[in-house]
Here is the input.
Amino acid sequence: MSIDTFNEPVIDRADVLAAVRKRARWTIAVPLLILAYLTYTWFAFGVPDLLSRAQPDRALILATDSVAYKVHVTKLLRRDILEVAIEGERRATYGDEDLPEWVTVDGTNSVIDLGEGYIVDIAGKVMQFTVPDYGVIKVTATNSGVTTELPPGDVPDWVSDNPKKFDARPTLDRRVQVTRTKIEVHNYFGGWENFWFPFGSPVYGMSFGEVVAAVFSDVRIDPDQSNASLILHEFWENPDWQHGAVFIALLETIMMAVLGTLTAAAFGLPLAFLAARNFTPSMILRFSTRRLFDFLRGIDMLIWSLIFIRAFGLGPLTGALAIAFTDTGSLGKLFSEALENIDNKQVEGVRATGATQLQRYRYGVIPQILPVFVSQVLYYLESNTRSATVIGALGAGGIGLMLVETMKTSRDWENTSYIIILTIVVVIAMDQASGWLRRKLIQGK
Here is the structure.
């Protein structure tokens, strides 16, 4: 028998079984602990109550409103007049000579063809709604409310009938409402209404080809200005979509992000030298600078924004300052760590040439931290473009404030979708631009 045989460790079977049992207990205990934590948070955060109060039908309606618009056919019973308008707006009301083809008017009475067999007949104070596979619903407006006559059988879920108001929505894109003061019919259409030009504009209803032809035509639509100027003005000053105001708000948001990030980088880099161990021998100075970084980044950007709003009032400056303060702490910490990890041999090589201290920093230190500096600054610039939207919603201005204003109405959700899409496009553009700059500055491509 060889000597190695006597040196082999003796494996105790009991120890192996104990180790296996211990690992098995942890394997079972960890998932159980996670499950218990998730169960606790489920009830602690009130998720069951939140789900019970959820309104998926309303969410579906709002989602529909974000990609579609509706035309209102309204009969005002007290004044005995009939109006047909886009989204019920006074400035988007059709005249008697240009009514939609699906609306037939006889004085103040009308017949409305909602398609697929859905017909609404309004005569005086009586509304008859023909619904395929259900029958005819007759609703009469009275001095005290409404009286309803439904086909025999169970009342469908899409009918809401009470003595004060009748509401029927058999499909998502058709709706009828009757009260003692008015009869209203909603007909939905896909797309965004009046997106390019406002209702009643000289170029409203023109096709793309007609608009292009008008730009190069010598015949002026408005004698006081060229067709190109008119078309640009009608688009830019569109009162419904406010393209000009939206693009200016986007520019303010980008300016907030750029100014705040560059200010943070400009202050963070010099302060990083004071916080780096290999550049600042004074422990008191290093400790103070690092605590300053902790203080600046420890307070959230939103809190800084609220502080500056109280101090300086509303405006993009408050957003830029909030970004600058928070990111000075974050970038300063990152830059100081990068400085502590540089290769001193390169610095010593520059010193051997007789270079001054400033030259040693320029040629021995900066080239080593430049990739970290550029990549981090550009990353924070991308992130701050999104953050500037949230800060703007608190009152700092920009696109965030416009987004909150459109959401408060709970009506024009297509405007909300428009602003969200533009914000996403800007973030994507900033991401692509920062990637291009990173490749140019770091890789030289």
